[in-house]
Structure formats: structure tokens, C-alpha cells
Design brief:
Blueprint (H helix, E strand, L loop, with lengths): L1 E6 L10 E2 L2 E2 L15 E11 L8 E8 L5 E6 L11 E5 L9 H10 L6 H7 L12 H18 L13 H17 L11 E5 L4 E3 L2 E9 L3 E5 L4 E4 L8 E2 L4 E6 L5 E14 L4 E4 L12 E3 L3 E19 L15 E3 L14 E3 L14
Antiparallel strand pairs: 1-18, 2-3, 4-5, 4-7, 5-6, 6-17, 7-16, 8-10, 8-19, 9-10, 10-14, 11-13, 11-15, 12-14, 15-18, 16-17, 18-20
Length: 367
């Protein structure tokens, strides 16, 4: 007896570069992949001078200019090293950053000031009603967060009796934010910055013209696609779906019960950049320069035009069972994109991620 069973392969044939400003540009199938990583220029705004046991640093409010009109909040993670504010800062993995307790720092960042939540943070710390003139809530929230970070990265201790250059209300508010973050933040491991999209077929069976379920595993926020020719992608209720998210199950309903192949092509991919990325100053040749290391404090989400194709092949295979539903055979449908993306395997699928705007290899220069 012959019964249909699913067989499929998915392979990457193009490199992928992921930058802080989003998915930039993958190279053509026969080209070398573009170097990965994000970069930006430092933007400074006035902050609050803090008083410490060993030194009195100013919590200058720092951001990274993405080169597209957006600036993202960052913090210093090396209090004893000077800020090279005139240099481009490039992304580096945690393993390349000579700083202790980065998991705890990320825990503080996720609870601390991220550029848009000053009022909520002061409320959580119990100091929303304090008189903080002449400073702003943003400056106070940033200073308290920076003080907590410096305690973790450099062992710096804020002076409880006179913590800031400000009056009593400012002292109380900054110290309260610091204390709240130290007391309420748990360590968080370095996020997975490599984009991936996987489809698991281990539970899939055939039932007439319907094959599935498949389960999506991805760190893309959303993957939108067009329905393929000769089949329809449906959910467990049989309703058509046009997007995937992490953990989502789906089925493929073929137009007819025959051996066939379906190709799925994405329209857009939504990527959320997580907090916790670290950056170092570099010279004109891209070599690391001694200077303050910075850490990203906020996430952001962007949508990009993209194409991601993979094939699902249904073919006749021998079976010893007369049951209408058979376990799926063949390799798992898996796509994993890596930053810089060397070719994973030769195969039937190419992934090309392109920005809606002009493709850039970093925030401020053309690829």
C-alpha cells in the first residue's frame, strides 16, 4: 500500500545581517556575507552630578544616534574610563566586554529608565510627589538607573547622606530609584540576537489533503506571508492564516490529494531589537579603542520587506500501516539565520532580508 507522507528540506543560501536599526541587507547567493553588527554616534544631554564614596561622576544622559532620526537610550558601564563621544560605537557580544555582572545590569535595565517611562519608575520607587526642580523626571530616573548600574559594573557606591548635587527632593528621588532597582532586579542572561525561524514537523501527519500540525519557533515578532499556489495555510480550526508568530501551530491544506510541492514566500518580517546590546568605540579602521563601553536600555520594533521561501514536499512513500494518518517522515523543516550568515547548507531555499529604506550595513553609512 502507498500513503502520502510529508518530506521536506529547508536550507539557507544567503547571509543575513541584523543591526540595531533592524534587519539590513543579505547578500546575493554567490556573494560574501556583509559584516554583521550595528553602530552609531553618541548623543549627550545634561544630567545630574552624583556624589559617591570614591568619585563624583555626572550621570550624563547618553543615547546612540541611529542615523535615521532616532536616538536610543544607553548607559555607561565603565565609570573609570573616559567617554569617546566623537567616535563611532559598534556592537560587540558580552564575551568581548570586560565588565562584570552584565546579567544583573540587564535586569536593572529592564526595570529602570528606558527613555520613555520616567513617571512610572518614580511612581514605582515611591517618589513621584518629590520636588525635583530644577531637574526633570527623565534626568532623575536616568541618574538613579545609572547609579545602580555603576554599583554593579564598577563597585561604585552612591553617598546616602548627600547623593546628588540637587536639593533634598532630588536627593531623595535619585537614591530611591537606585535602591528600588538594586532591590528588585534579577539577573537576565544575554538575549539571543541572532534571528531564527524554525518549523517543526515532528508531530505532522497526513489526513486526506491536510498535512500537519507544524509548529513555528522564531524570535521574529511576526512573519507575514502570501498564501501559496496549490494549497492553503490554515490554523487548527481550518481558517486561513497569513502570518506566523512564535509557538504558532499550522496546517497545510492541499487543493488535491496528489504528490505536490508548496512554496511559502513571506511579505514582511517584524523584528524587535531587545535591550542589553553592548557597544564599544572604534577608530576609522573599525578597531576597538579604549573608552567607555555602553549598553542599550530599550527595545524597539520595526517592520521590513523580506522574502523567506521554504518548500513542503508531499510524495508517495511505502507504508505498512492501513491507517489514514501516518507519522511524517523526512527531515525537520528548519531555517536558522545567523548574523553575518555564512551559508548553512546548500539547498532549495534562499532567505533575503532587506530594509524598506535604503539598505545599510550600519546606522550611519551605506552598506
Amino acid at each position: 500500500m502507498m500513503s502520502k507522507a510529508l518530506k521536506g528540506t529547508v536550507a539557507a543560501a544567503a547571509g543575513v545581517m541584523l543591526g540595531l536599526s533592524g534587519v539590513a541587507a543579505a547578500q546575493a547567493q554567490d556573494e560574501e556575507p556583509t559584516p554583521s553588527g550595528a553602530s552609531g554616534t553618541v548623543v549627550e544631554e545634561p544630567g545630574i552630578r552624583l556624589h559617591g564614596e570614591t568619585q563624583d561622576p555626572t550621570a550624563v544622559m547618553l543615547g546612540l544616534d541611529l542615523g535615521d532620526g532616532e536616538t536610543r537610550t544607553v548607559y555607561c558601564i565603565q565609570i573609570t574610563v573616559g567617554l569617546e563621544d566623537s567616535l563611532i560605537h559598534e556592537e560587540r557580544p558580552w564575551e568581548d566586554i570586560p565588565v562584570e555582572d552584565l546579567p544583573l545590569v540587564l535586569g536593572v535595565l529592564l526595570n529602570g529608565y528606558n527613555g520613555a517611562n520616567a513617571a512610572e519608575l518614580l511612581e514605582a520607587a515611591g517618589v513621584a510627589a518629590e520636588n525635583i526642580d530644577p531637574f526633570t523626571a527623565d534626568q532623575v530616573a536616568y541618574a538613579g538607573t545609572q547609579a545602580a548600574i555603576w554599583e554593579l559594573t564598577d563597585g561604585w557606591e552612591i553617598t546616602a547622606a548627600d547623593p546628588t548635587e540637587g536639593d533634598a527632593g532630588v536627593d531623595t528621588a535619585v537614591l530611591a530609584v537606585h535602591d528600588y532597582l538594586i532591590a528588585n532586579s534579577e539577573p537576565v542572561e544575554e538575549p539571543d540576537f541572532e534571528p531564527y525561524f524554525e518549523v517543526d514537523d515532528s508531530e505532522a501527519v497526513t489526513d486526506g489533503t491536510v498535512v500537519g500540525p507544524f509548529t513555528v519557533s522564531t524570535n521574529f515578532t511576526s512573519v507575514e506571508f502570501s498564501q501559496p499556489e496549490g494549497a492553503t495555510v490554515v490554523d487548527e480550526n481550518g481558517d486561513a492564516v497569513t502570518s506566523f508568530a512564535d509557538g504558532q501551530g499550522f496546517y497545510v491544506e492541499f487543493d488535491e490529494a496528489a504528490s505536490s510541492t508548496v512554496t511559502l514566500t513571506t511579505d514582511t518580517i517584524t523584528w524587535t531589537t531587545p535591550a542589553g546590546r553592548t557597544f564599544v568605540p572604534v577608530d576609522a579602521e573599525g578597531a576597538d579603542v579604549e573608552g567607555q563601553r555602553l549598553i542599550l536600555a530599550e527595545e524597539h520594533t520595526s517592520e521590513y520587506a523580506a522574502e523567506l521561501e521554504f518548500e513542503i514536499v508531499v510524495e508517495e512513500v511505502p507504508s505498512e500501516s492501513p491507517k489514514p494518518q501516518l507519522p511524517v517522515t523526512g527531515s525537520s523543516l528548519t531555517y536558522v539565520a545567523s548574523i553575518g550568515g555564512a551559508v548553512l547548507v546548500a539547498g532549495v531555499v534562499a532567505m533575503v532580508l532587506m530594509r524598506r529604506r535604503a539598505a545599510r550595513a550600519d546606522w550611519g553609512s551605506d552598506a
